User: Fold these one by one.
Assistant:
Number 1:
Amino acid sequence: MRQVSPRTDPAPSRLRYRLERMRLTPVYRRLFRLGVPVLVIAGLAGGYLADAGRREALGEKFTGIRRQIETRPEFMVHLMALEGASAHVQEDIREIFPYELPASSFDLDLPAIRAMVEDLPAVARANVRIRQGGVLAVEITERVPVALWRTREEIDVLDITGAAIASIAERAERPDLPVLTGAGADRAVAQALDILAAARALGAPVRGLVRMGERRWDLVLADGKRVLLPETEPVRALERVIVLDRSSDILGRDLVAIDMRLGARPTVRLSEAATEEWWRITSASGAAGNSSGAKGR
């Protein structure tokens, strides 16, 4: 009788089945398609860069290539154009400019240049950009001087915001600007200019404005007379003085000051000579009245 060998089961084992299923998943395919080459390349690169000399040589090579690109003619800046700046501001900018031209545009820090220019006292705003042709254009808006602020140390030239533009040695250097004095005068320049504009209607030359107590102004005329203005609505109070002067020539009289701090009751302070004369006239009038009364009795 012939012996029959047992038939083998064609089904895969459980482990082989699981491995086949895993091999067919997208993650497994992606790992072998991309991950293995990346690991091989990373290993080769790591082995090559393990030597310090090779790393240094490779860094120098990349630095040289980068520098060749940055110094191409189309990236070079050859000159600086200053627009909207006066001669002395241009001189100050060129003195503090930290770069040697020509220079690569990659080496120029435009925000830092702008901040450096705007730090100058005479500059209000600056715009920095690189134009075609290798020109560094710096567009400048300067502060406009509107007044002088006399302090104990110096005379500062102020703009409308009270920022100090420059300092001068004496008043004669800027006779076109009005003079402000007193602590805090630089914080109320706009109000001072409004007062001085209204004072033109007085028809009398003005010496300047004095800030009193850092809260109000005294208008000083060329002959030394003062108009004491209130803290609020000083222009309106000055307009009342103008009306009084036109109606009764009050500023032409022998007085020291007109106090407008109490709007409902302006006060006039006479000079010493005028006060003595007033007392003399008052005393003489009183004596004449007493004499007439005695004769009548």
Number 2:
Amino acid sequence: MQVLQTDNSIVLTGVASFHPAHIFDCGQAFRWNPDGKGYTGIVGDKVIRVVCENDSVILEGASYEDYESLWRHYLDLDRDYETIKQEFSKDPVLAEAVSYGWGMRILNQDPWETLISFIISANNNITRIKGIVERLSASLGRAVPFEDKAYYTFPDPSALAGADDNTLKRCGCGYRGPYIRETARMVADGKLSLADLKQLPYAEARKHLLSCKGVGEKVADCILLFSMNHTEAFPVDVWIKRIMEQLYTHKPLSVKEIRAYAGARFGKYAGLAQQYLFYYARDMRIGRQEEE
């Protein structure tokens, strides 16, 4: 891969396994949206547009310093996805999913934003999650201009810890409001250190996350996979459970049994396998019941 800096962009050539729609529309992140040219999003206080043209990936609005300090890691550009996909393709079911979502990468997101975003995600859909996250950011974050439009940083722990009921209600948090505020207080007060959590083994980090209000097993695994580099985490919701039963086990299993099955079958990259399967099955409507 080659990195070239232009006036206001970084141009990456020779990037394999990279497609913005596969990355930003697979349910792992909520601050990226298509704008007719590419996908624009905010990470921390940096806003860029990601565009694919021919064999190049263009990061519009990024400096070389920001690329090295943020975007290279965030976009997971140092992981060898080609080798991972070759191994996955030995599995006939996963081979189809990999072929369909060939440009997917797991983003290395901020643990704090990911924690709150996935508390919001429980029993929710992506459109509503995005709306709630944006309203919280507009209400409690800071404005960052990009091409004559304001984007907003995600609220820091102290801001969310001090948010009143009306603010949380107005942003659409619903019953999740108290969970968000209580978890924010744990982080703001130092009772929960996400930096320390990131250094723990998977099982131990998962146990700590499950102590947070609003964090169940699926949410904990999403946080571990999308922000703490625990690629062995295999988030299981009702839909993923159906997908695994329909495509693999051909019999009903508990969520615990599904996770164990996935760990044994997909190994240390079980979480990546889950994302390929999720993206493929969602678009192919595999695992959906008629009433949905």
Number 3:
Amino acid sequence: MGTLINVAAIIVASILGVVFKRGLPEKIQKSVMFALGIGLVAISLGIFLKYFFYIENNVIKTQGELMVIISLVVGILIGEWIDIDAKLSNWAESIEKKYNLPPLAKGFIAGTLIFCVGAMAIIGPLQDGLYGDMSILLIKSTLDFVTALVLASIFGIGVIFSAISVLVFQGSITLIFMATSDFLPTAMIDSVAMVGSILLIAIGINFMELRKVKVANMLPALVIAVIYYLVMTLF
């Protein structure tokens, strides 16, 4: 459901961008981005605390401290070594420069790259598929609405077709995790949720422009969290 809202937001914004031929003023864009950043940090922090704290014998305890640290440190080391962020950026730029695309195709390519390449496009549908939690995708929908409005005012109606890419990409992730959620161990899901929520906090920091964080380079931390769980089950 969250992905469908995301798709609808892109479609509506694309139409409005074409009709009015103007993007939102930069001042409003920055204000919206800052508000989205605060909201994303608050929601993500709530998700993290939900799995980090638990009550046992009327005593509040914590769990997953070592897993979180190891996942983030090892994950960022791998991400920086591969430099996922730079590779994604270079790939996007090369596509834009290599092909002399007509405006329709340019709008589709630009929208697809912006809306589908990023941590929110992965973690959002993951949360939706595992827990039925659309909160991250709702924030992404708001962000994509603003972005699509601006893109459509520049590239035209081609941006609207990037909604198909979002539907296929995010929808597939959601459906996969919906189908497998009953078979995945709860502890492993909780581990991924905790690490994923920290990545989302980093995205919120980017939105607020407090610091530039290469969140794409942190994505391997999600895989490390799963590996950590599998290793610990052997001991």
Number 4:
Amino acid sequence: MEALLDYDPTQIIAGVDEAGRGPLAGPVVAAAVILNPAQPISGLADSKKLSEAKRDALSPLIKQYALSWCIASASVEEIDTLNILQATLLAMQRAVNGLSSTPELVLVDGNRLPNLTIPALAIVKGDSKVAAISAASILAKVERDRLMVDYHHQYPDFAFHIHKGYGTRQHLQEIHQIGILPIHRQTFNPVKQLLASQLKS
């Protein structure tokens, strides 16, 4: 999985990924994971390519066998204040800083790096190339989905447990029929457009 990348695999490596950049509601969640070479976890892959059941099965194994892991987030308020890219990088920074062990190298999914004091590499499609990034993508996705289920219980008129806050037809209908919630990202269209139309009326 990692043979094509230009780094020393004997280093203590933390993989970092996020979940929730695209939705209209809720925080963006990031995770950092340092895997234990002596405790390999089979089945790691990009979380988007795994079923929900598979992610849910792998998440506790990652937490059990990893040398260190941390899940962090950036709030809706931070997303609206900073923009989604900067909020994502902030969540990633918090996840790395929250690790109980300090890695020698941080590998981040994507093409942008958070502000870190540790050497880091950005790897496009890293969640399908690096096991530690795959593990981070799974933890971030499972945690964010859990938050969405909690939001459904808090706001039962919204099917957050189904659409996970993404701009699906169902979610857009809910917004127009029920209104905008405190957990909606006000700088994201169509939430932004609806707010603007309310101000005009």
